[in-house]
Amino acid sequence: MSLKEIAKMSGASVATVSRVLNQTGYTCRDRELQNRIWEAAAKLEYVPNHAAQQLKSGHSAQESSGCVDVFLTRFQTLDEDIFFRELYEILREILLQRQCVLNRLLTLPDMIDRAKNISRTHPSEKTPDGLIMLGKCPPELLPFLKKQYQNLVGIDRNPTSFDYDEVFCDGSLAAEMAMDYLISLGHRHIAYIGDCSYEARYIGYHQSLMAHKLPLDYSNVYPTSQTREEGRQMMNVILDKKDRPTAVFCANDSTALGVFDALKARRTRGYVPSIISIDNIREAETTSPMLTTINIPKREMAHHAVSLLLDRISGGHRENARIEMQGRLVVRESCSYCV
Questions:
Q1: What is the pLDDT of residues 280-327, one digit of tens each?
Q2: Are the CB atoms for 317 and 311 separated by under 8 Å?
Q3: Which residues pair with 275 in a beta bridge?
Q4: CA Rg, the chain, in Å?
Q5: Is residue 21 helix, strand or coil?
Q6: What phi and psi values does residue 46 have, to the nearest 5 degrees?
Q7: What is the Cα–Cα distance from 130 to 237, expressed in whole angstroms?
Q8: Per CATH, domain 171-296 is 3.40.50.2300
Q9: Whole-angstrom Cα distance, residue 99 to residue 149?
Q10: CATH 1.10.260.40 residue window(s) in the chain
């Protein structure tokens, strides 16, 4: 499989294709072009040809390490959650580097449809060696997934008690880190915008308030499914109130972007709340003000997930493994002392 074919399909130069596919961490200025390159590489089942380097060191070229599906567990498209979109892009890169074929990206509707119509699966369809789940697997789907895939690994902000390997960054601890920072700046009237249904980040919001002996005011809690649009809507609700919070903790960066949208549109004089969130997506560095957030180590999580999956595929381990990564506070411009 040549780079020229990928270049032709994606509309990029061969040099650009080579840099995107073969240079670790390389980011093309044109994100859409980079995505087209990756999509073309996936369709053509491209794996890097390291034969020249291997021959120099006395080793023969490697075959593909496996064929992997990726399951987006909560959303219908990657655009609904920027964190998982960026995580998926990193996964594509790491799978390619590890000589893996990325077979399909499956969404929740896709997987539900496959579970209902398993008898209709085409016999020529490639059988994947494993599945990487982005987000928490719906428990009702797990028996089906375990029948379809012998090797499973999940990546999420929260741990589960499910029977598969997982890499996670504890959302409750990340939320406590964000809240503790706001409280250290003197904020006591802090709103929460995000998921409230058994959500670790909401639990962390509670725990931080209790640890600092602050009351939980349910009028400061705004349940959403954590999209940018809902963040904008809920911030508009806050702006219509007389007693507004001095700070807003958003469950993810996408929600925080919506909060910024509302603040810019309304331009309420004299009211500039501190905004903090979780994820540290790329756009967090380019917002105005730049977003203070908790970094979730996407690249490291993807690296460990692929390593766990390949180790299980090769028979390296049989018992379920759990790897916990640590979040990190990234202080930018969106938080200030309460006055």
A1: 999 999 999 999 999 999 999 999 999 999 999 999 999 999 999 999
A2: yes
A3: 248
A4: 22
A5: helix
A6: -75, 135
A7: 44
A8: yes
A9: 19
A10: 1-49
Angle subtended at Cα 335 by Cα 329 and Cα 336, rounded to the nearest 5 degrees: 125
Amino acid letter, 98: R
Distance between CA atoms of residues 104 and 169, nearest Å: 25
52-91 residue pLDDT tens = 343 344 443 345 578 899 999 988 888 888 999 999 999 9
Handedness of CA 308, 83, 196, 189 (dihedral sign): positive
Q: How far apart are CA 258 and CA 281, in angstroms?
A: 14
In angstroms, what CA-CA distances link 187 with 132, 223, 253? 40, 21, 20
Burial per residue of 83-92, b for 16 or more beta-carbon CB atoms within 10 angstroms, e otherwise? bbbbbbbbbb
Please list the residue range(s) of the chain that carry CATH number 3.40.50.2300.
Answer: 171-296
Range with lowest mean pLDDT among 8-22, 182-196, 257-271: 8-22
Closest CA to 302 of 139, 87, 105, 97: 87
* Residue pair 249/234 in contact by the 8 Å Cβ criterion: no
**CATH number assigned to the domain with residue range 1-49, chosen from the 4 options 1.10.260.40, 1.10.150.170, 2.130.10.10, 3.40.50.1820:** 1.10.260.40
Chain CA centroid to CA 151, Å: 21
How far apart CA 86 and CA 271 sit, in angstroms, is: 32
Q: What is the pTM of this model?
A: 0.82
- The phi, psi pair for 164, rounded to 5°, reads -160, 165
Q: What share of the chain is helix, strand, coil (3-state, %, to 5)?
A: 45, 15, 40
Q: Tokens standing for 240? A: 């219509």
Q: Where are the alpha helices (DSSP H) in 98-227?
A: 108-116, 142-148, 171-184, 200-211
What are the pLDDT digits (tens) for 163-210?
899 999 999 999 999 999 999 999 999 999 999 987 899 999 999 999
The separation between the first and the last C-alpha atoms of the chain, rounded to the nearest angstrom, is 62
Count of other CB atoms within 10 angstroms of residue 114: 16
